[in-house]
Hints:
The protein has 199 residues and is mainly β. The protein has one helix spanning 2-30; strands at residues 32-45, 65-72, 91-95, 101-115, 123-132, 140-150, 165-166, 168-169, 177-186. The chain is built from 1 helix and 9 strands.
Amino acid sequence: MIHSRLCRRSSALCWFLLCCASLVCRCGALSGHYYRIDVMLTELHNPKSLIHNGKRCDVFTACDPLLYVYIDTQKPRETFPGGARSQEDFTVLTSQYNSDTLTINRSLSKTICGSSSQALPTDVTARVDARDHDYFTGHDIMEEFNCSFVFRASWEGDYAWSEERPCKARFHPLDISLRFKWRVIPITPEQCGQETVPA
Length: 199
């Protein structure tokens, strides 16, 4: 009689442990990393109206800046263009006619969605391909910028932007400048893949 009770108790305990293990596995499978990276370009300054080769954008007028942006989480520490495979990876953020000083204040976002076993990026670099819009000869390269920062998620409820900082210019770092700020926000799984348009 005692032996029978012990067997029943042992079976019940094994069943309970199996259920717990199954629940843990399911929760682990559903868990993951869900973040949105927001990068905002704030100001562009090109007072000498230069393009990458040192020539002026136009003879009689200012530049016509056209900014393409790619948020690089794959190869953020490599030289421009890093993880971007082609110009199609870049998104047009803003454009302006006849202006060497441009107040931008527009942002682009990228979501990161993956299993908890996948490593999060340690760094992020926004690649900015700045062009001078030209209707006749094509868009001349004005400057190529790397806007880098450490991947650090905000606390829930505190989604303030970082302080502004300068991007690194490739061709004319003393003459052409671009400033930016960023934030990394936790999101829900339902928001994954919802890349936002420039805003």
